[in-house]
Each structure stands twice: as C-alpha cells, then as structure tokens.
Structure to design on (232 residues):
C-alpha cells in the first residue's frame, strides 16, 4: 500500500465507477494514493444487439483503457450481469480483496436505485466491509483490515433519497475524467441515454453548491453525520 493510503471504488457494472467517481479516484491517485476500481460484473447484458460475450469483451477492453487514464488498478469480480446476489459468495470474495488492499476509503452505490444490481452491490459492499474488518471471519488467512470510511457516489439511476454530504472539487482533473468516461462507447453517446451530458451537468451543479466549478458529491450513512460540539 502507498504511504498516503488506498481508495477502492466498487461498482455493479463496468462503467459505473468511472462515471460516478472516476475524477475523484484520479485526484487521489495524483496525490499519491493507491486507487482501485472493482467491477462486480461487466454489464455484459446491457446491449440491445450484441451478445453478452461480445459486449462483455468490449466492456472489459473499455474498462482497461479507462482505468489507465484514471491511474487506477482494475479488478474484475467473477459475477454475471443481472444475477448479483447478497449470498455469501459475493461478499466473501470482495471481503478477501478488501483485506488484501486494506483501503482507507471505500466508495460504492447509494442504497436506493431503479437498478436492482446497484442496490445489491450496495448491500454486498456493506457486508464485505463488515467481514473484512471482523477478526472472527476466516478469509484465506488474511489479516483483518482497518475499518474504512464508506462513501456513496452519485449515479443517475440511484437518485432516490440521495443527499450529498461530502464534495470533492474535480475541476483540475475534468479533462482527464472526460477521456476516461468516453473510453466507453456509452460514454461517447453510443446508447439511448446521454450519460456524459447528465454527469457533466451534475458535476457543474455540485460545483455551484460547494463554490467551485465542478465537483463530485458523496452521501454517507446517517451515523457519520453526527458531530460533537461544545458550542455552536
């Protein structure tokens, strides 16, 4: 692990992490952090015409290109698009990876979404973090990891109940983030939804909210909003 720290972002499909928080990962990488992208699935069933095997191969290549631009290590989990489950297989495999990486920060999807895989990934990550830090889980002899700070990134399908609590100024890495974003065909507009338009507009709105040009916003669990003060 680097002297500064390790940041890990976990997405349901290849592209989710890069779109939600790719700029934040790059910013940390430039500050000396180890940055890691974890794809629970390739999102291989998301193309209306290409077969899952064909589209999966395309998404894998796109993910590698994007990760290189974002200066992030890439991890593909062995699960299938649309078939994610909170049964122990997925949390255990992710917990093993977290023990190896020992991140200070973990980012994933918000808990509410119109996409079932996003909700399931949120639950998998929460379970995996619990298992990774708990010494009573035996995971291939790996030592328990420290408890990471857990953040939830903003996704166009995960807007219900999302309340931004932490903002990261991404103005200085916007151009590189755009290149990584558009390493994906859907990021270049080759799909039904205008992904780049939405995420760029959202980044501008979040920038306005926090007094900068562009920002990415993150939600946290309610217990992390508590502050102790002797006066106001």
């Amino acid at each position: 692990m680097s002297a500064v720290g390790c940041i890990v972002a976990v997405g349901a499909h290849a592209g989710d992490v890069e779109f939600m928080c790719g700029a934040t990962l790059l910013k940390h990488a430039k500050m000396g952090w180890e940055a890691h992208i974890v794809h629970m699935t390739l999102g291989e069933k998301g193309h209306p015409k290409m077969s899952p095997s064909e589209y999966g191969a395309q998404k894998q290549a796109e993910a590698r290109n994007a990760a290189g631009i974002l200066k992030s290590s890439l991890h593909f989990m062995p699960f299938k698009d649309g078939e994610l489950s909170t049964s122990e297989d997925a949390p255990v495999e992710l917990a093993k990876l977290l023990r190896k990486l020992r991140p200070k920060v973990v980012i994933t999807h918000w808990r509410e979404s119109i996409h079932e895989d996003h909700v399931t990934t949120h639950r998998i990550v929460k379970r995996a973090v619990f298992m990774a830090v708990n010494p009573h889980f035996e995971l291939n002899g790996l030592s328990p990891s420290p408890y990471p700070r857990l953040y939830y990134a903003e996704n166009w399908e995960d807007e219900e109940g999302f309340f931004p609590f932490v903002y990261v100024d991404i103005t200085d890495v916007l151009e590189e983030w755009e290149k990584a974003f558009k390493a994906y065909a859907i990021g270049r507009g080759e799909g039904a939804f205008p992904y780049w338009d939405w995420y760029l507009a959202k980044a501008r709105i979040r920038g306005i909210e926090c007094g900068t040009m562009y920002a990415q916003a993150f939600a946290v669990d309610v217990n992390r909003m508590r502050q102790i003060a002797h006066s106001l």
In short: Residues 6-221 form a domain with the Rossmann fold fold (CATH 3.40.50.10320). The two ends are 39 Å apart (CA to CA). The beta strands are 6-13, 34-41, 73-76, 105-109, 149-153, 166-169, 215-219.
